[in-house]
Amino acid sequence: MLTQNLGYPRIGSHRELKKACENYWAAKTGHKTVLQVGKNIRQENWLMQKNAGISIIPSNDFSFYDQVLDHSLMFGAIPKRYNEVMLKKGNTELDLYFAMARGYQKEGLDIIAMEMTKWFDTNYHYLVPEFYKNQQFKLFSTKVIDEFYESKQLGIVTKPVLIGPVSYLLLGKEKEAGFEKIDLLKNLLPVYLEVLTQLVNLGVEYVQFDEPFLALDLTEKEKKAFREAYKQIKNAFPRLKIVLATYFDSLGDNIALAASLPVSVLHIDLVRAPQQLNDVLSVLKSDVILSLGLIDGRNIWKNDFEYSLSTINTVVEKIGESRVWIAPSCSLIHSPCDLDNETNEEILTPEIKQWMAFAEQKIAEVVTLKQLANADRGTSAERKLAENIIAQQNRKTSSLIHKSEVKVRINQVTSKDAERLNSFSVRKVKQQNALNLPSYPTTTIGSFPQTAEVRSWRAKFKNGTFSTAEYNKLIADETTKAVKWQEEIGLDVLVHGEFERNDMVEYFGEQLDGFTFSKNGWVQSYGSRCVKPPIIYGDVKRYAPMTLEWTSYAQSLTPKYMKGMLTGPVTILQWSFVRNDQPRSQTCTQIALAIRDEVCDLEKAGIKIIQIDEPAIREGLPLRKAEWENYLNWAVNAFKLSASGIKDETQIHTHMCYSEFNDIIKNIADMDADVITIETSRSQMELLDVFADFEYPNEIGPGVYDIHSPRVPNRLEMIDLLKKAKAVIPSEQLWVNPDCGLKTRGWDETKKALIEMVEAAKIMRNN
Ligand code: GLN
Ligand code: ZN
């Protein structure tokens, strides 16, 4: 029985790579420094895994920005617009690479970056390969070969990780009409074979091909591409051992396909999809090793050793110990690096910490599981099993996690609790009478500029330089200024500005029981950007009102409507590490009840309009369409539960960022928010078509200007967009607001742009 790892975090346990890259981009250091930092991280990771006792250690899992971009560079899939970058004196391959990742604006060039999108259902983002008709590929970057050689120099024969040819093509985008990207396989495969030739010449034994698309719905043509690709690879390299890695969901109806491919090792994700094990075992060819993805690569909980051991034992009985490998479920790049760096017991208490494992701890778990399964039970493995059992027991019963009042309340929730008192048509009239807003009412999405100054106040408050009173005074003054200014320019529905918030999820998490945080639990989101998700470990409950004070304060400053501003339950869930001892839907419902209480408290305090942001609803969609309905049912229900404890007159807004609504418009309508604001300006209002076709009944605020650039739009442009909106959505349903994200802008451009926006709305009213 061997152990393997599929990939290790490359950001460095203190985000060394982030800092090195950002210094390089700012021209504070040269390329030698950043290359050296990369090399150090690779060596550290390899040696750590070797010392931990992992049998098969990955290479080429390192990346300066993104592994998909690495492959585009490897295959020479470099869009023409970057040609000039290499012609500039002094530029290296690394500069070309970063230009593709981030765009290139200097020396008279202004080249946009490649598009970025989410990596399956994770919060990692990759750079989308751009494909053209008859595109030719050639070996351009030899990174994978160089890194294999580098590890060999260290005395470690690693397993290079490649994205498999079919998944690489499916990750890309066709940039012109007249072909299908999968047709490029025949042009692409020769480059894979060339890479493999070089690796084999250097003495490679195993190569990992990641084919996550095997866990998604595939067309017949795509299935055929899989067969063709792996047949050719096998024919060219009959003795090379291929590890075929699948993850994030079950193989489902692709089980037979996956099992038929001529590979040496098949890796499956048994954390996301434990139910697939028996089906896989029943079709696995007798010469194929099964790699059991038992340790959760995407969450921060300790493995349940007893449970994993029973799985391992079942498999060993069926196919024999020599055909079983133990592994994390997927690459560990989705886990933070090292739990041992969490030394601040005030942030993360020892009781909670004992339930957790970050990447380095997960590596140790893989090895311990193998030792325990092998019954080469050295005393240390036995001791670790005993400790693990105690931690699991403690987690099952800890009063930190299990709160009877939360469980009792959840059981009392009825379907009626998730419905407003009356339908929208009734509410609309009551709200009109109560609120008396003009047509084309104007508002913003919530935040106002989080200037360096505001952020410095928070930092000083956190490190004790400012007292609570001092900090609150500064925030209150900033809020007052924002309210007065909104009044002055004549916005109809005001916001308080969110100056007191560090982040739209963390701010709520910090005020909810059942949440904890880490100091160093960073995970790569894209490039040098890392996130530190809150950790939901237990039953969720509100200690006390969370936003009431600031919202009421802001309301007290103005006779205009102050919009209460909350983050919705699905978004809070989606952007956190979630407990794995109960269904996500259950945790989401608990959060929904806490938000519901907040909504009710705001209403009681006289707040008439409340926005519940749900930008993350769409990204929670399961990978397989068959599972969408179940997810959408509980997600929409959680939102409605949070929004329904109030009178008809109180107006609920929700907000979603730029996303495609085509296939979920019915569910968006089911959310039944009185007003939905969406990001649309960059699509020239095209996103509204699906609302129009569906005859979406409630009110809509399409963003009328793009906040992503400091450029100030004028009223004519906005009027133009509003006219486009009016052409498809009846004007009595329309609101006027910018796209979301004003917190990232400066005050100067924000003010100018909103003045124009208010004028645009006035002109629309008079037409
Ligand atoms: N209310 C939030 C803001 O305006 C919404 C952020 C978001 O949509 N991601 O910043
Ligand atoms: Zn948004």
Automatic annotation (TrEMBL):
Binds 2 Zn(2+) ions per subunit. Binds 1 zinc ion per subunit. It is an enzyme of class 2 (transferase). Pathway: Amino-acid biosynthesis; L-methionine biosynthesis via de novo pathway; L-methionine from L-homocysteine (MetE route): step 1/1. L-methionine binds at I445, G446, S447, E498, D613. Residues 441-762 form the Cobalamin-independent methionine synthase MetE C-terminal/archaeal domain. The keyword Glycosyltransferase does not apply. The active site is at H708 (proton donor). 5-methyltetrahydropteroyltri-L-glutamate binds at R15, E16, L17, K18, K118, N123, R529, C530, W575, E619. Its cofactor is Zn(2+). Belongs to the vitamin-B12 independent methionine synthase family. Catalyzes the transfer of a methyl group from 5-methyltetrahydrofolate to homocysteine resulting in methionine formation. This is 5-methyltetrahydropteroyltriglutamate--homocysteine methyltransferase. It comes from Pedobacter frigiditerrae. The gene is metE.
